[in-house]
């Protein structure tokens, strides 16, 4: 049976090398999921580029959402934004834009790529993550790949100490007024970041969690890490 330290970090990791390319299915996902890491990267002059997959029209007026995103981006000092303009909650019935993804990769030449989780709740998150993995593998792009969490806690293997920038992150989330009037994403994110610091040094009150690997081994790592545990527990149940 694995011990706790096999399943969750007890030490924070340094932020990865840049430039960063972050794919956000909706305007606000990147801020909720990794706004603290973005703020830390920009403090170290790492370029951070965000690609919005949809304009978030299923969750409100897309023009308002993009204006809110612009305000949050300014607060976090995000380097640039790009747009795929795909339909919100309609990704699975829309042709995947491989060529546009390739153009972004060629233009930005990222050292680290961030995507939402293929185990997330929202169908757009799941669909996009699986398909971007297919594109990266087809192009044989093997670089650091970090999976970020939004509201649903994920199985993680990396923690980033965001103590010094937590309030900057929360203020950035509050820029999305049209969204937090329905759900308090700023409170939910802050509470999740507080939970993520549970295994870290007592001086670290807030952390962001990721599952990190490379584009070639991320699925293999995820499967190996958790399937073995499931199989072991199932075997014990049968033996009993």
Descriptive overview:
The chain has 240 residues and is of the alpha/beta class. It has a 7-stranded mixed β-sheet with strand order 3-2-1-4-5-7-6, sandwiched between helices. Helices cover 45% and strands 17% of the residues. The two termini are 16 Å apart. It contains 9 helices and 7 strands; from the N terminus they run αβαβαβαβαββαααβα. Helix 2 runs antiparallel to helix 6, helix 3 packs antiparallel against helix 6 and helix 6 packs antiparallel against helix 8. Strand 2, helix 3 and strand 3 form a beta-alpha-beta unit. The C terminus is likely disordered. The longest helix is centred in the C-terminal third of the chain and has 22 residues. It is globular, with a radius of gyration of 18 Å.
Task: Provide a concise account of the structure shown.
The protein is of the alpha/beta class and 240 residues long.
């Amino acid at each position: 049976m694995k011990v706790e330290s096999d399943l969750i970090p007890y030490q924070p990791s340094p932020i990865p090398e840049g430039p960063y390319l972050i794919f956000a299915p909706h305007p606000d996902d990147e801020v909720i999921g990794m706004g603290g890491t973005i703020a830390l990267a920009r403090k170290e002059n790492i370029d951070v580029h965000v690609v919005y997959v949809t304009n978030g029209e299923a969750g409100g007026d897309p023009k308002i959402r993009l204006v809110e995103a612009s305000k949050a981006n300014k607060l976090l000092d995000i380097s640039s934004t790009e747009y795929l303009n795909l339909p919100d909650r309609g990704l699975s019935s829309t042709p995947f834009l491989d060529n546009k993804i390739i153009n972004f990769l060629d233009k930005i030449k990222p050292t680290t790529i961030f995507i939402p989780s293929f185990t997330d709740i929202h169908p757009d998150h799941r669909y996009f993550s699986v398909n971007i993995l297919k594109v990266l593998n087809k192009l044989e792009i093997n670089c650091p790949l970090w999976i970020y969490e939004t509201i649903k806690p994920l199985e993680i293997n990396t923690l980033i100490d965001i103590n010094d920038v937590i309030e900057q992150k929360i203020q950035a989330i509050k820029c999305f007024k049209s969204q937090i009037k329905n759900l308090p994403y700023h409170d939910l994110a802050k509470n999740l970041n507080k939970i993520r610091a549970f295994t870290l040094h007592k001086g670290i009150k807030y952390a962001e969690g990721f599952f990190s690997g490379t584009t070639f081994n991320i699925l293999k790592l995820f499967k190996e890490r958790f399937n073995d545990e499931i199989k072991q527990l199932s075997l014990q149940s049968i033996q009993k």
